[in-house]
Structure formats: C-alpha cells, structure tokens
User: Fold this.
Amino acid sequence: MEEISWQAPEFEYREKTVSWYWFSIILAVLVLAAAIWQKNFLFAVFVILAEILILTWANREPSLVEYRLNKKGLDIGKNKSYTYGEIESFGVRGNEGEEWSELVFTFKKSLRPALKASLPTHLLPQVKKVLEVILLETEVKESAFDALERFLRF
Assistant:
C-alpha cells in the first residue's frame, strides 16, 4: 500500500464582516441583560467569557495540518494517529470543481464523534482507491450542527 500525504487547513475559514461582529455583540448583550434581570450572575459571567472567546476565535485563521494515510491508518500531524481497526467507515463530502473535499471517518466506538479532514479534491480518487480496500464507504449527510455552523459563518 502506498502512503498518501497532504497538507490542509485545520478548519474551513469563513470571512466575517463588521456586521457579523456587531450582531454577535448585540446578541450577547441581550442575553447578558436577561441573565442579570433573572439575577443569574454565574450565567452572566459565562456569557461574557463566551463572547470574548467567540470574538477571539472568529478572526483566527487556520494553520496547516499534515495528514498521512499509510498501511497502519491515518496520522494527523506528529501527535495523533488512528488505526484502521478503530475506524468503522469513511465518507466523502464535496462537489466537483471545488478545491477541497471533506473526508469523514466514523469510529467503531459510538460515543466518539466523526473525524473530518480536508482533502484536496485532486487527491480524492487516489485516497478512495486506497480506503475502499480497507474500509466501508458510507454516504455523508450534513448534520444540523454543520448546517448551523455554515449559517453562522463560524
């Protein structure tokens, strides 16, 4: 089995406008006012901290991550690796003509969330050819959380 490696951003970056930030701040102020009105000061502190984190993370650009498919499994960077024994199936989400596709791995442990990795679309046939021999390919459906994330541009 040949080794396939690629670099991809750790997440999809979506440009945000000034109005996005204003909407976030106004929404946080409204929730903060409701928390204070209800005299729930712990929740008010949580809202303030959450808004600070949202504003900080919203402007963060993704770093590049090294992915490597080899005979043992999938390696992500230098610290994470998943063997094919841990992975139940894989699926691909993306459209022809797009620069990136999304490679989604589901695990045998039911409580473990799916692992999503960006993949350059031109490598897709090569990766599918390797993975189809080892793993079951399943259809990937967009979750409600994925749709919400795309809608909020986060």
